[in-house]
Amino acid sequence: MTIQLTTDSGADVPKHLQEAWDIKVVSLFVRFGEEQYKSEDITTKDFLERVSTGKVFPQSAAPSPQDYYDTFKAIDPAKPIIHISLSSGVSASYNHAVMAKTQLLEEEPNRDIYLIDTKSASSGMILMLDDAIQMIEQNMSAEDIALHLERRVPYLRTVFLLETIDNLIRGGRLSRAKGAIAKTLNVKLILHASEEGKIDVLEKVRGAKKAHRRFHDLIGEYIKDPAEKVFVMTHGYAKEKCDDVLDKVRERYAFKDVYQAETGPVIAAHAGKGALVMSFFSDLTHQEKH
């Protein structure tokens, strides 16, 4: 391709799409105490098993500015770079990419590097990458593609349905007192990536069946005509569950394309096993919706 797409492993792009789209992925890290792994070096299955049986709750870490610098530097200088980043609201990844870009441009000022803060994660980043691919295939310039993607960010919706809130509690993102109340009342949390790119509670629903129905209903509240839109769903080591939900989504909403992937360890550390993460472009921005 005439343009090089890069991203970080918070995107959860499956290997076949990495190859088909020629994407270079900069790895985030997960730590169990003093042990650190690149997110690509541990499977989600093994990671979740270790979380459930271990006493040490893992921490995630962004790639260093040097990691981004090395990735950008190795790309043919004649190729513009468009980098699709994990939300600056949940990770230092974007800021570290900015630092790497600044350093490289000091050395090679003729480089074209565009950084997109998606204000999202996982399925939302896959959706943005798909959007970029469509425009590359239309021979649009890197500058025009980057401008288009920036304009798309306010319309990007990323919604999480959690099977369990245990990881939120253990990771300190939800207090134990609130967690205990939610479990007692059988409350399921529907989270979303906010306008600022932070992961916030969107709704609290009593019972799993009601939560799943609400998860489906939300799509229709954001989109009138899905025929020209793409839908992406990632799952926390729960492919059968994801397949079932996607079947229901397809029956109800005629999306142009549907992608499915498994969340990597970084996203799974917070969302937990069985989580579903869906993304699509809304008809309205966050501000217009409210």
3D architecture notes:
The chain starts with a strand and ends with a helix. It folds into two domains: about 150 residues, Rossmann fold (3-Layer(aba) Sandwich); about 140 residues, Hypothetical Protein Tm841, Chain: A,domain 3, CATH 3.30.1180. The radius of gyration is 19 Å and the shape is globular. α3 packs across α4 and α5 packs antiparallel against α6. It contains twelve helices and 13 strands. It has a six-stranded mixed β-sheet with strand order 10-9-8-13-11-12, sandwiched between helices. A four-stranded parallel β-sheet has the order 2-1-6-7, sandwiched between helices. About 40% of the residues lie in helices and about 25% in strands. With about 290 residues, the chain is α/β, with parallel strands linked by helices.
